């Protein structure tokens, strides 16, 4: 289990799970607004199935990335101690993790509802394309954004398999797209010199870290505007507005100010930010 958790970086779920459960919360709220009340037990069951599906999907994405990048990781001093390049895990074991996660993901999606099952190949396509993007485009950061952005909308459809009332969940997914793309640019500044040497594409390797961080700031500003749109179309109230301002402080000020400290900006601030966004959604719905 320790080897598995190390391989898929289980701590990174602190970024994705709050967005996923925020999407679920929007779905539950939309159902209630349309006269469809879910029992507490039904919500718990749905929540557990969503967790299982999300864990399977996320494991697929990470395993794909680690398998595809294993030779690149072996050359990079920052990543050389990852499980595959360091020989801590065999390639056959990595594929076992991948296919086991695939079974879990598809079975969970089918258990949620038919719409989730029919849509389940879409994330798989994104997971399959993203690891190769850094080999031909500096827009590879948006592959990360696309991967994470599917979670909130998927969780919404898990509890409400209907396109009616999807606007807040869609906006949350778009926010996630820009937020994740922006923080991946921050993360990639740690590999600027390596990417240049190996001919890999990223905004830091193409523009330099200083200019890339400016782009990250602009992308995060767009993300905040999208989240403000969620407030405008779905929520009101001073308490919700106060939480939105807290998000602005974390996203537009603190994360950009501390961007040179990748450990702090990427891991710690983003982990807090994800849960604050979840609080924003829950508070907004309770007061709507």
Can you put this structure into words, describing what you see?
With 288 residues, this protein is mostly helical. The chain is 80% helix and 0% strand. It has helices at residues 2-8, 13-33, 40-68, 70-75, 91-112, 114-119, 121-133, 141-159, 167-188, 192-198, 203-207, 209-234, 238-257, 262-287. Helix 8 packs antiparallel against helix 9 and helix 12 (209-234) packs antiparallel against helix 13 (238-257). It is globular and about 60 Å long.
Unreliable parts: none
Largest sheet: none
Written as H for each helix and E for each strand, in order along the chain, the element string is HHHHHHHHHHHHHH
Number of helices: 14
Give the overall silhouette: globular
> How large is the share of residues in beta strands?
under 5%
Terminal CA distance reads 43 Å
**Share in helix:** over 70%
Oligomer: single chain
Helix/strand-derived category reads: mainly alpha
Write down how many β-strands occur, each being a DSSP E stretch of 2 or more residues.
0
Spatial extent as radius of gyration: 19 Å
Q: pLDDT average, as an integer? A: 91
Describe the structure concisely for a colleague.
By secondary structure, the protein is an all-alpha fold.
How do the helices and strands line up, and which of them pair or pack?
Layout: H1 2-8, H2 13-33, H3 40-68, H4 70-75, H5 91-112, H6 114-119, H7 121-133, H8 141-159, H9 167-188, H10 192-198, H11 203-207, H12 209-234, H13 238-257, H14 262-287
Helix pairs in contact: 2-3, 2-8, 2-9, 2-14, 3-5, 3-7, 3-8, 7-8, 8-9, 9-12, 9-14, 12-13, 13-14
């Amino acid at each position: 289990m320790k080897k598995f958790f190390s391989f898929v970086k289980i701590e990174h779920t602190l970024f994705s799970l709050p967005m996923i459960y925020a999407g679920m919360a929007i779905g539950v709220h939309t159902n209630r607004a349309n006269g469809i009340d879910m029992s507490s037990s039904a919500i718990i069951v749905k929540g557990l199935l969503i967790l299982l599906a999300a864990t399977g999907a996320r494991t697929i994405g990470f395993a794909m990335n680690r398998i595809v990048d294993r030779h690149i990781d072996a050359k990079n001093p920052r990543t050389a101690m990852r499980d595959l390049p360091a020989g801590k895990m065999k390639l056959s074991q990595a594929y076992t993790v991948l296919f086991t996660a695939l079974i879990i993901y598809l079975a969970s999606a089918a258990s949620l509802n038919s719409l989730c099952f029919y849509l389940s190949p879409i994330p798989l396509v994104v997971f399959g394309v993203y690891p190769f993007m850094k080999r031909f485009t500096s827009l590879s950061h948006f592959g990360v954004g696309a991967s994470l952005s599917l979670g909130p909308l998927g969780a919404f459809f898990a509890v409400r398999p209907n396109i009616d009332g999807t606007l807040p969940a869609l906006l949350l997914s778009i926010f996630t797209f820009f937020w994740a793309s922006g923080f991946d640019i921050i993360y990639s500044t740690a590999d600027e010199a390596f990417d240049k040497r190996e001919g890999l594409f990223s905004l830091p390797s193409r523009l330099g870290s200083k200019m890339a961080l400016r782009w990250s700031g602009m992308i995060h500003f767009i993300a905040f505007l999208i989240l403000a749109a969620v407030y405008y179309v779905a929520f009101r109230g001073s308490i919700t507005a106060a939480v939105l301002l807290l998000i602005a402080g974390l996203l537009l000020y603190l994360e950009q100010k501390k961007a040179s400290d990748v450990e702090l900006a990427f891991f710690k601030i983003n982990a807090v930010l994800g849960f604050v966004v979840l609080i924003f959604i829950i508070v907004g719905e309770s007061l709507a």
